[in-house]
């Protein structure tokens, strides 16, 4: 006779075997991939981490479309430029859903743009794009705001007189002020206490998104939401952003609608008013709060982190920095306002800005999508609800597309005569119907900020510092290790 504990062990083993066989059968419905284990899927093989090199390595065995199981969730990975491009653009609407994971649901509750899916996402996104255009995106109006913030940043570095500084905060401050001016109608001073709280909440959220606890939350949400830990802090950080957004909405309501809407909140409140008598109004305060958070989170951390990498690359490649400066000096006057259009006369500078984005690969492996209907991906039938990950890192580092994918090489974007050359595999903003909504703004910011900074200063390591770490730290975005530079006026 078996004891109770022996019976229990036999039962568990039996259930695991049944689960294993079921999984093997389920695997047949997906593109090939490493064999998953019951409960854990492929997490053990992945060392409980999403690593870009491992994802690219697996493609050598299983091909450019394969399946990985994150616990009990199968995820189809698209690897390399061709697979990502075809997967995202052949049936773009079919793969336009967002994976609303437990953590995403806990913060945004399916509202807003970035973490929403289906009809609501479509409406909020369409309205978001239209409104940003009305506020000057893609036109001179917005470019002027970018120029203004870039010149504040130059003044800040001038005030340091070459003393060493970690440029992370000043870059974040200036970049996020562009989006704050658009959304809230004003920008923050660098001593503003509320602004510091918002930055610290944003940093915490991005750091959490790269942590092991985050992975645990996504796999065992029912357990994690009952336990204390960093996930509680991350949730409260999202609340800090939401409370601020609500306070700003209240301020706008109390101030009353001006004759012409002045900022994003004015436009959105007008839309709420217009649609309030509809059966199911599409625009409401909860959606507005999440859209504000999406624009603030999406529009601050990304461009500023790219520039943070950019200054680091200039410090470790002084010859490239010098070549950019020579080109800027030859084409621009010392106090001429730099426009986005100037990139056409500055092919080398433009190539360097593109290479900074390619090489830093800040969005790491990109954001997961979900199929909104049964579809086909690169010849494989895929069911509605399946998660798809277009691996952006594998595109930006694709050895078939880039001559020296693992080297910082502005030549990737130049032809033999030194003219700027667009590259199809340059997809840092992803592709298809969910392509980054702020792409144009981000490109304008990166070019104008970078050109202004390099025209005014030479960036160098502080005296006595000879080594600098260029490996990324994994978070919601790939960040450089903190570093200090001296901005030496030219
Ligand atoms: C260097 C800068 C940036 C990079 C590399 C970047 C990259 C990305 C990527 C990869 C996505 C996911 C697309 C997908 O689902 O496949 C995305 C989405 C998004 N980005 Fe950006 N982004 C940048 C700047 C910005 C800026 C400045 C804004 C603000 C205006 C912004 C707002 C958004 C929003 C709202 C989404 C969600 C779009 C959707 O789900 O429909 N981003 N971005």
Describe this structure in words.
With 490 residues, this protein is α+β, with helices and mostly antiparallel strands. It folds into 2 domains: 113 residues, Uridine Diphospho-n-acetylenolpyruvylglucosamine Reductase, domain 2 (2-Layer Sandwich); 345 residues, Orthogonal Bundle (Cytochrome p450), CATH 1.10.630. The protein is 52% helix and 8% strand. The strands form 4 sheets. A 5-stranded mixed beta sheet has the order 1-2-7-4-3. A hairpin with a 2-residue loop joins strand 1 and strand 2. The site of protoporphyrin IX containing FE has 28 residues, from helix 13 and helix 17. This is Cytochrome P450 2J6-like. Its cofactor is heme. One of its GO terms (cellular component) is membrane.
Q: Give, in order, the helices and strands.
A: HHEEHEHHHHHHHHHHHHEEEEHHEEEE
CATH architecture level-2 label of the largest domain: Orthogonal Bundle
Number of helices: 17
Largest sheet: 5 strands, mixed
- Give the CATH H-level superfamily of the largest domain: Cytochrome P450
Low-confidence region ranges = none
Global mean pLDDT: 92
Large-scale geometry: globular
Q: Compute the number of structural domains.
A: 2
Our measurement of the CA-to-CA distance between the termini, rounded to an integer number of angstroms, reads 87 Å
User: Could you say what the CATH topology of the largest domain is called?
Assistant: Cytochrome p450
Beta-strand percent range: 5-15%
Number of strands: 11
As a whole number of angstroms, the C-alpha radius of gyration is 24 Å
Can you list the strand order of the major beta sheet? 1-2-7-4-3
The ligands bound in this entry are: protoporphyrin IX containing FE
Helix and strand composition category: alpha+beta
Helix content: 40-55%
